[in-house]
Specification:
- Helices cover 57% and strands 18% of the residues.
- It is of the alpha+beta class.
- It has a five-stranded antiparallel beta sheet with strand order 2-1-5-4-3.
- The longest helix is centred in the middle third of the chain and has 61 residues, at 205-265.
- The relative contact order is 0.05.
Length: 480
């Protein structure tokens, strides 16, 4: 009971006031009787009040004080309940703010950060103590940061809300300096005649990757359909061109044999006439040069047939988005065939395929695109080095019973150490405009790591070259 009253002092004051009202007249009467050496009884106490108006007055005062005590206790109880309710709602609100996926940041009219929720910590990498009290442009790239204060001044000068309430894509900057795409919506908040701005920020880096992948997939699908149609249309005429060239080659051999036999059978006078005709029509040159020309044409037809075969292989993607078995050496050779134009003038190619490494299970179309990208990047690196003809080497090795390692090595310019950690970032590129978009390696990383549960990494030294490793599981993860 005592502990309960100590924990609830406002209730103690009410009880004390009630007891005080009830006992004050009795205790006062008892005290006066005792002090005057009279016997203590209810009759004597009542008699005291009949003859002493001051005691009645003090009883009334006690009653008023008791009423005030009860009233004060009630007010204290009501205020405490309201404070507890307010505290509970504050905790709930803070919990909600800390569990939402979006960064919620509040700034005052000078651009100073006054609140920073937990998602903002996760997205930007700062703790609240590091940014509260600092300018909001600390979270922006330098170019945008320089202009932000001007935006706030323009709003207060014109009272026109150009971007407030609208979601728009912007660039933001993390603590480690990484710039990333974000969606921002700014709201205006007024409290106690003060204006504040609340920004809701969402990191859309992954969304941009997915959009880029979707765009790339749509382009590849369109190109694949076109390539498949072109390959089909080219295949038939190439086949009969090749057949006719082979027949023509055989016919020329027969003509050469006929000319030799004719020369043997002819008498001296006829030989003189034949030699004159041969010289006049340059037949000797024709009979020597034409078979060579036909041989070169046949080689060209064979080359076109290889390209058509590679195009058909690359354009053929299973309709179901499931893994399929592909012959790894054939897939790599097809990639070399299709990308030949990118390296034929700058590099030689060597391959070293593990004879025990045949088929692998993968998403064929997407993995083929990774092969193409790495070969083309190797050619660009050699070209960038400007040190003469280079070398691209492709190797496959079985790491163990469950994994394969595919190596793409070049002796090109290499990747500087200060940008190596950014190589797989979306839209990061060191290539000039028109030669690279910064999507290739990011998409390659997503295809190898996310879709195939493999690894994509590289070793590089400036001026020496680069080796990219694709390590893939041989068996589908879904089937194990």
């Amino acid at each position: 009971m005592i502990n309960f009253l100590l924990r609830h002092p406002y209730r103690f004051s009410i009880l004390f006031s009630a007891f005080f009202v009830l006992l004050f007249p009795v205790t006062t009467g008892v005290f006066k009787l005792w002090y005057s050496n009279q016997s203590i009884s209810w009759n004597h106490i009542l008699a005291l009040y009949d003859g002493h108006d001051d005691l009645s007055m003090w009883g009334a005062v006690a009653l008023i004080l008791a009423f005030l005590g009860v009233f004060t206790g009630k007010i204290s109880m009501w205020l405490k309940q309201k404070m507890e309710s307010l505290e509970q709602r504050t905790v709930q609100l803070n919990t909600i703010l800390d569990t939402v996926a979006s960064a919620i940041i509040t700034i005052d009219k000078t651009g100073t950060i006054i609140s920073f929720n937990r998602s903002a910590e996760r997205i930007f990498g700062y703790s609240p103590s590091e940014v509260i009290g600092c300018k909001i442009n600390r979270l922006m790239p330098a170019v945008i940061a320089e202009q932000h204060d001007g935006y706030i001044r323009r709003f207060f000068d014109t009272q026109k809300a150009v971007i407030i309430g609208k979601r728009r894509e912007v660039e933001a900057q993390r603590k480690n300096g990484e710039i990333f795409p974000a969606l921002l919506q700014v709201s205006l908040l007024e409290m106690e005649d003060e204006l504040f701005f609340t920004g809701m920020v969402d990191d859309i880096s992954e969304t941009k990757v997915l959009q880029a992948q979707l765009s790339q997939a749509q382009k590849l699908e369109a190109i694949g359909q076109l390539a498949s149609g072109v390959a089909h249309e080219i295949n038939t005429p190439i086949q009969y061109i090749g057949d006719n060239l082979s027949a023509l080659y055989d016919n020329f051999n027969e003509i050469i044999a006929f000319q030799r036999n004719l020369d043997v059978l002819a008498d001296e006078s006829l030989k003189i006439k034949l030699d004159q005709l041969i010289e006049r029509h340059d037949l000797q040159f024709i009979l020597e040069d034409s078979p060579k020309a036909i041989e070169q044409a046949l080689e060209g037809v064979e080359r076109v047939a290889e390209i058509v075969k590679a195009m058909k292989s690359f354009s053929h993607v299973e309709a179901s988005q499931t893994k399929q078995l592909i012959n790894l050496p054939e897939a790599l050779n097809d990639a070399l065939t299709l990308s030949r134009n990118s390296y034929k003038y700058v590099a030689d190619v060597e391959t070293d395929f593990d004879p025990e490494m045949g088929s692998i299970e993968c998403y064929a179309g997407e993995l083929n695109q990774v092969f193409l990208n790495l070969i083309i990047n190797a050619a660009h690196a050699i070209e960038e080095k400007k040190a003469g003809r280079g070398l691209i080497r492709i190797v496959t090795r079985k790491l163990n019973n469950n994994n394969v390692d595919i190596l793409f090595t070049d002796n090109g310019a290499g990747i500087p150490k200060d940008i190596q950690e950014k190589v797989f970032n979306l839209f990061f590129t060191t290539k000039p405009v028109g030669k690279g978009t910064g999507q290739g390696l990011s998409l390659a990383h997503n295809i190898v790591v996310e879709k195939h549960h493999g690894r994509l990494f590289f070793e590089s030294e400036v001026g020496i070259g680069t080796t990219f490793h694709i390590q893939l599981p041989l068996a589908s993860k879904e089937s194990t």
